[in-house]
Amino acid sequence: MGKRYYCDYCDRSFQDNMHNRKKHLNGVQHHRAKKAWFDHFRDTAAILYDEQTKKPCRKFLQKGICDFGPNCRFSHMSEEDFFHLQRQVEEEQQRKEDSKDRTKPDRTIEEWLSRREKKQSVISTKGDKKTEEDGEEGQAEINVPPQLLSIPDLPPSLLPPPPGGWKVKVNTEWG
Hints:
Elements: E1 4-7, E2 12-15, H1 18-25, H2 28-39, H3 44-53, H4 58-63, H5 79-102, H6 109-126, H7 132-141, H8 146-149
Antiparallel strand pairs: 1-2
């Protein structure tokens, strides 16, 4: 028994050779299954636009069922469905606008990074000597741009240091 090819879109497996795979990948069922899979990830604005451009399905309106199902080239949405979809699109747009307003920083990440690089180069040239002014500026510079903090599950290396800095425990005993 040879290798088997499994298609995730169609949930089928068959003997893997060039002829069978090509025949399957060019088949109508595979194309429909692939389209259905990617349609799950479309945003509501695209779905609303597509449904508005389609004409209503007469068979679906008369009988409440269509032989073509989701592959029908006509729209199966009622006026109520359109209203709910429009409301959902408006809510998503409002959420995006609200999040943009909240994350609008006083300065950009590029500015913050360039200032940080300058400070580190100055510190490295001075050595370990710090004046109190440098210490105050360093504490003010810990304020990380809100874009970085809005990302969930940041790795510890990207999180800002705790107030007062990291506590380093010196262990002189080895072994």
